[in-house]
Amino acid sequence: MNALLAEVAAGRRMSEEELARLYREADLLELGQAANRVRERLHPGRPVTFIIDRNINYTNICSCRCRFCAFYREEGADDAYVLSERELHTKIEEALALGATQVMIQGGLHPALDITWFEAMFRGIKQRYPVTVHSLTAPEVAHIARLSGLTTRQALERLAAAGLDSLPGGGAEILHDEVRGRVSPAKLASQEWLRVMEEAHSLGLPTTATMVLGLGEGLEHRIAHLRAIRALQDRSGGFRAFIMWTYQPGNNELRGAPVSSAQYLRMLALARLYLDNVPHVQGSWVTQGPQVGQLSLWFGADDLGSIMIEENVVRAAGVAYRMSLEEMVGLIRAAGKVPAQRDTAYRLLRVFTED
Fold first, then answer.
1. Interaxial angle between packed helices 261-274 and 16-25, expressed in degrees from 0 to 180 and rounded to the nearest 10
2. CB atoms within 10 A of CB 324
3. Which of 82, 197, 246, 340 is deepest in the core (most CB within 10 A)?
4. Residues ≥6 apart with Cβ < 8 Å to 90
5. Core vs surface per residue 142-173: b (16+ CB within 10 A) or e
6. pTM above 0.85, yes or no
7. How far does Cα 304 stand from its chain's mean position?
8. pLDDT tens for residues 196-235?
């Protein structure tokens, strides 16, 4: 076991059989140490990074009705909404005043918002604000394309021309249709999600890749997900980072069980070891809490994501961890790391030294 971990940490590509063996047999702390060696090898001396951004949900109206989602509303519900341009711009202005460099604009699959609505939104943002638009998941892109009578590639081309800079990796959940058919049957199939991501990469639109634990999936489903991400990254090189979340069981139809912190850290370390071609791995304090987010920095994570000026989807499930800039800097320092603010492309903007 130690020899296997040492070989993989040194750069030898891990097989799926080895991943399964390590998941079942490896000591948790030894897994973490091996993943941390990969982090140090890929990013020697680099600070632990975070970004200041705002996650803006333009609508909560969604036709997808995923069983694990507590955020969506039916059209006509009392609390259903679509943000006006003024509301959107006010949120962006508030974020910029707090030092944000990115907005992540996402929403439900609204039955009436076609590509012209999004083009106008992105152009309006770019004309007014110096901000990176890291927005729209693969299911949103596919939905917009279908409503507009376009291919997903055509939709991506038009969205990029209007101001879309990169795509978040949401909507992946578990890239195995046995799981997707049970928890999100109206959402994109696994190969469709991967195709939209590959099209984005081919057009020069980088993305992230995500994974959600706790949807009733087995180890074989998790391995299939990681295999698909690694294979696409071999072809396209367009994933900037891998981000793993955990399902939150509150206020939704799925009614599953929460994933333990130990299981989360085990899978995070294995993902860092297996995804040898993805440059960055993000720890999730948003779903696991600040303390486990801090621990993730010793299990392969080199980034803690955003301080989250606004977050609505996880909060709708009953989890509402918040983080200020000072708290993020302190959290990273307390882990024995150097904190630094980054931009969407992982370029360092500010390193927080002790002096």
1. 150
2. 11
3. 197
4. none
5. bbbbebbebebbebbbbbbebbbbbbbbbbbb
6. yes
7. 11
8. 999 999 999 999 999 999 988 999 999 999 999 999 999 9
